[in-house]
Amino acid sequence: MILVTKWFGSFICDDGKVRKVALFPKDAAEIASRLGRIMKGEVLDEETGIASSAKQVADRRLSDFGKVVKLDSSFIKPESYGFTIDIYREATIILAKDSVRSSIGPDVHLGQAVRAYDDLVFTTNILSERLREWYGLHFPELEVVMSGDAYPKAIAEYGSRHDIMTALKLGMDSIGSEIAPQDLESLKVLANALVESYSARAKVERYVEARMREVAPNISALVGPVIGARLIMLSGSLLRLASFPSSTVQLLGAEKAMFRHLKKGSAPPKHGVLFQHPLVHNAPMWQRGAIARVIAAKACLAARADAYSKSDISSILKEQLDKRIAEIRKQRAAPSKKKPVKVRRGRR
To answer: pTM of the full predicted structure?
Structure first.
């Protein structure tokens, strides 16, 4: 007696014949629900109801009910039990939609948020450069005394050079030219847009930091929330990041350099987005590769803890990271002598 489950029901079979039947409801949504449970490895009520008669099973998922064996169940036809291919088609469409919905978790939203943050950083840099160049024609000395978001705020609030100097009590001679009222209004519009861009960037950054502490607290504590969110974004999801080896995590974000190395024989990259970590970019050049490798290894452990066990191991990982980096700094206090490298020419 072999227990086998098809898309329309569960069956007890023996010698190529069906002995017992537990059919699913003839409803596409109910069938999709059962197929989804099967995909998750769950045991259905229909299977439990007839499993007492089985000594063998055709699915490893049902191994608690008997020995797993192979069975050609093509002799069990859906039309013999009143099921049509149209019901199956509708059920699979419902299942596909449910799978798409369930695949979009908070880590996917984090990936989009960090992309939005990068776009806002790029936008603020472009707008800031344009505002400083344009307003510098009228009051070039302002950027000496004001920086960051204070610069566009002053222009948006006060406007002209005379009004800014009066409000901020700046006593200086300016070499800037006079400006027409309509030009000043356009400058204030640009300054207001830059102020809003700075505000939006700060809000998105706070969101990423708060969400990372909920979704991936170990990664957030180890490499920082923004870098951690970029790692999740580049890998596709937290689960995919947890499945990567440390060598892959180390080079996330350096794909172009890696392909250039493989194609043209240039020097291989030593780090991707991990270069943004202070321990990497503040280190001497000859230590960066080793430090990035250690951070990537600990980031893999942090990702696996966040994805599976949900336990807080950040303090342990930080202690191990600090200890290993101290060893690297001691062992590689001075750069090693490099051997000449022959550059391999790429194929035409």
So the answer is: 0.72
